[in-house]
Amino acid sequence: MSKRKASHVEAESDEAFQELLQPTYKGKKLLDEINTAEDKWNLLPAFLKVKGLVKQHLDSFNYFVDVDLKKIIRANELVLSDVDPEFYLKYLDIRVGHKSSSAPGTKEVILPPHECRLRDLTYSAPIYVDVEYTRGRKIIMHKDLEIGRMPVMLRSNKCILDGIDEKQMARFDECPIDPGGYFVVNGTEKVILVQEQLSKNRIIVESDDKKGIVQASVTSSTHERKSKTYVITKNDKIYLKHNSIGEDIPIVIVLKAAGITSDLEILQLVCGADSNYQDLFVVNFEEAAKLQVFTQQQALNYVGKRVKTIRRAGAPKLSQLQEGIEAIATTIIAHITVSDLQFREKALYIATMARRVIMTMHNPKMVDDRDYVGNKRLELAGQLMSLLFEDLFKKFNSDFKANIDKILKKPSRTSEFDALLSINIHSNNITMGLNRAISTGNWSLKRFKMERAGVTHVLSRLSYISALGMMTRISSQFEKSRKVSGPRALQPSQFGMLCTSDTPEGEACGLVKNLALMTHITTDDEELPIRKLCYVLGCEDILGIDSATLHAPGNFGIFLNGTLVGSSRFPAKFVNDFRQLRRTGKVSEFVSIYTNTHQRAVHIATDGGRICRPLIIVENNIPRVKAHHLFKLQNGDWDFDDFLSHGLVEYLDVNEENDSLIALYEKDLEENAANQVTHLEIEPFTVLGAVAGLIPYPHHNQSPRNTYQCAMGKQAIGAIAYNQFRRIDTLLYFMVYPQQPMVKTKTIELIEYDKLPAGQNATVAVMSYSGYDIEDALVLNKSSIDRGFGRCQVVRKNTIQLKRYPNHTKDIVSGMRVDEEGNAIFPHKALGPDGLGEIGARVENGQVYVNKCVPTNAGESVLGHNEQAQQAESHRETPAYYKGPEPSYVDQVMMSVSDNDQALIKVLLRQTRRPELGDKFSSRHGQKGVCGIIVQQEDLPFNDQGISPDIIMNPHGFPSRMTVGKMIELISGKAGVLNGSLEYGTCFGGSKLEDMSKILVEKGFSYSGKDMLYSGITGECLQAYIFFGPIYYQKLKHMVLDKMHARARGPRAVLTRQPTEGRSRDGGLRLGEMERDCVIAYGASQLLLERLMISSDAFEVDICNNCGLMGYNSWCTTCKSSEHIIKMTIPYAAKLLFQELISMNIAPRLKLGDVF
Amino acid sequence: MVKQEKGLLFVDEEDERVYDKEESPYYQEDEQEEIPDDPIIDSIPLVMNTLSSRSTQSLHVLQYPGRPKTRPLDQEEYRAAVKEESNYLEVRLPLDTNKFFNANKVEEWGETIGEQTLNGVLDKTDGGYYVGQIVKDGDSRKIVLVPVDSTTQLRPSFKYIDDIDQMAQTQRRAEASEANKNTNFQILQSSAKSSSQITNTEGFGNALGESLRHVKKFDEEEWSHLKWTPTQDELAQTTKEQLRNGGDGVELTTATTFGDYINELTRA
Question: Where is this region: Disordered (chain B) (predicted)?
Answer without folding.
Answer: 15-38
